[in-house]
């Protein structure tokens, strides 16, 4: 059951994650890679915990349903830009992932025109986000700890490739779902 509550531990974890985004951005741009890695890892743990605790403690809220994916998108964008700026990842990866989010944003006004809100998060989208958020610490670790550079780089790119594929697959499913919703709403008006 979705609650209207605001002050829950899962929501506080999401807010903490949002507050850490500019901290991570500052750390990565100023070459404080060890601290940036720690903040990124903390963010990943809090991302897992907020969803897990919300479901386990029956604290799923409308605010949490908005905050969590919003924090995920901002973390992905900030991390992508920071890692690309530092040369850890190529700019084409940034473009591929931003293009997917642009497609998703384009569905919002289309759905709004037929009186429908944002679509529910799909499992593949969650899995893609998990893979992407898992790839970034490994890619950064490959820079921070030279002794682990090889394995960390391979794991990071494995997660990045899978995450990108799943991210786009989920995006295409969202577009399909949005098209069905629009068709159904238009048919209901006839």
From TrEMBL:
Location (main, coarse): membrane
Membrane topology: Multi-pass membrane protein
TM helices/strands, residue ranges: 12-29, 123-148, 154-175
Localization, UniProt: Membrane
Alphabetical UniProt keywords: Lipid biosynthesis, Lipid metabolism, Membrane, Phospholipid biosynthesis, Phospholipid metabolism, Transferase, Transmembrane, Transmembrane helix
InterPro entries xref list: CDP-alcohol_PTase-I, CDP-OH_P_trans, CDP-OH_PTrfase_TM_dom, CDP_ALCOHOL_P_TRANSF_CS, Phosphatidylglycerol_P_synth
Pfam name, any one: CDP-OH_P_transf
Recorded family membership: Belongs to the CDP-alcohol phosphatidyltransferase class-I family.
Protein name listed in UniProt: CDP-alcohol phosphatidyltransferase family protein
